[in-house]
Specification:
Oligomer: single chain
Distance between the termini: 16 Å
Order of helices and strands: HEHHHHHHHHHHEHHHHHHHHH
CATH architecture of the largest domain: Up-down Bundle
Radius of gyration: 22 Å
Number of domains: 2
Number of helices: 20
Largest sheet: 2 strands, parallel
CATH superfamily of the largest domain: MFS general substrate transporter like domains
Helix content: over 70%
């Protein structure tokens, strides 16, 4: 593990995290340093990505920005779509330019949407298309997840990847709650007519994180992926089944994170302060529960845990429908908070299904007389590609949620119930898919790795 000389040149050459002696001699410190900075970068990226979920709550005729509910939902859907579409190219960029180099670029470029938000968000009469353009640029923060996860995978041995990726993803997801807390602080201190203050907080943070990444992170030569992995993964049916499930888990988490404040305003007439005051708790809890979902999936099986998660999300959605009909604010907030927790939990369990499903396929290939080394190398390569594809498609679910709310609140009824019914139907579809595709397989298909898988993790 040539981490000493690599820091001088910016690249780690001959890096092998599976070498336990080298790992204990200092490799773990190199990995931890890169993980900490990766979490910081992804955290800022998520905050910028979801910034407009807070800024739209400030937009009112009092500051000369009287957009309709439908226009506001369209605005928060825009960064969601862009961030989703960027996840595949961002994942590939790390394998071409290096984790350190790309982290510096991907963090620094976020200064552009922040500068524009600070300048325009308090200018009366600014047309909607300007904000849609700035929101699209903020979507670049959503791509950071894919590049960050791809990069950290190269630093940690297989036995520690679940823990490391869980921390990386959870720390990034916390950016959703962080930007909403900043919005609450701004409203509490300066009032609800200064949205530019929320965006301005991130100007120094982005600069500091980019500089730290340039100074302390490393590029890894082994992160370079074999060509065609994503194309091969796209031909595998499991890629699309798992992506469909991830739309329901992560799509719900990020979609509700963008929409919750606006829903409270439109459903109950909440003020900006009330809306921001209630919206941060759900994403905060959902972020913390993501690694717990993965941990429980290790013990009980990813498909089983994900099945029960969707069952709970269906029940939570039914609570929202009842709360909306009864105009019960407390029940509504409680139901939404439960959905955040369950979607975060499901994020971890669904991602845990990916390596288990492909490792099981490799086992079947070996028992049929295939080459063990080749089978498990291919399984790991495809798992990485599926993580990128599912992450991109799953994030599109967030855009679908916001578009559903846009239609629901602009059809003249002024209620989110039609959207909630659509979400409930989708969760039922996910339950059917898990039951039919995964729970009917053998009970060990998505449980802990067998000895063959553990042995193959070092190849």
């Amino acid at each position: 593990m040539a981490h000493t000389s690599a820091r001088q040149g910016g690249w780690l050459t001959g890096w092998d995290p599976e070498d336990e002696d080298a790992w204990h001699r200092g490799g773990h410190r190199v990995a931890r340093r890169n993980l900490v900075l990766s979490v910081l970068s992804e955290h800022v990226g998520f905050s910028v990505w979801t910034l407009w979920s807070v800024l739209v709550l400030f937009m009112s005729p009092e500051i000369g920005l009287g957009f309709s509910a439908g226009e506001k939902f369209l605005l928060v859907a825009t960064p969601t779509v862009v961030g989703s579409l960027l996840r595949l190219p961002y994942s590939r960029a790390v394998t071409r330019f290096g984790g350190r180099n790309w982290t510096v670029f991907a963090t620094g470029i976020l200064l552009v949407p922040i500068f524009l938000a600070v300048y325009f968000v308090q200018r009366p009469g600014t047309p909607l298309w300007v904000f849609l353009l700035i929101g699209a640029l903020a979507g670049f923060g959503g791509g950071n997840f894919a590049s960050s996860m791809t990069n950290i995978t190269a630093f940690y041995p297989q036995r520690h990847q679940g823990w490391a990726l869980g921390l990386n993803a959870g720390g990034g997801n916390l950016g959703v709650a962080a930007v909403q807390l900043i919005g609450l602080m701004v409203i509490s201190i300066a009032g609800d007519t200064h949205p530019s203050y929320v965006a301005a907080v991130y100007l120094p943070l982005i600069v500091v994180v980019a500089l730290l990444a340039a100074w302390k992170m490393d590029n890894v030569d082994t992160v370079r992926a074999a060509p065609g992995a994503q194309r091969e993964a796209a031909r595998d049916p499991d890629t699309w089944w798992i992506s469909l499930l991830y739309i329901g888990t992560f799509g719900s988490f990020i979609g509700y994170g963008f929409a919750f404040g606006l829903v409270l305003q439109n459903e109950f007439g909440a003020s900006p302060r009330e809306a921001v005051g209630y919206t941060f708790l759900g994403p905060l809890l959902g972020s913390f529960f993501r690694p717990l979902g993965g941990l429980l999936a290790d013990r009980l099986g990813g498909a089983r845990v994900t099945f029960w998660t969707f069952l709970g999300m269906g029940a939570g959605t039914a609570v929202l429908i009842v709360a909306a009909e009864r105009n019960s604010f407390g029940m509504f907030v409680a139901g939404f908070t439960a959905l955040f927790v369950l979607s975060g939990f499901g994020n971890g369990s669904t991602y845990k299904m990916i390596p288990a499903v492909f490792a099981k396929k490799a086992e079947h290939e070996v028992t049929s007389g295939g080459d063990a080394r080749g089978a498990f190398v291919r399984a790991r390569r495809l798992s990485g590609a599926v993580i990128a594809i599912a992450g991109a498609i799953g994030a599109l679910g967030g855009a679908a949620i916001n578009l559903a709310f846009k239609l629901s609140y602009t059809d003249g009824a002024g209620s989110g119930t039609p959207a909630f019914i659509a979400f409930l139907a989708y969760y039922i579809v996910c339950l059917v898919v898990i039951r039919a595709v995964y729970l009917r397989r053998t009970a060990t298909d998505d449980k802990k790795p067998t000895d063959a898988v553990k042995e193959a993790s070092s190849v």
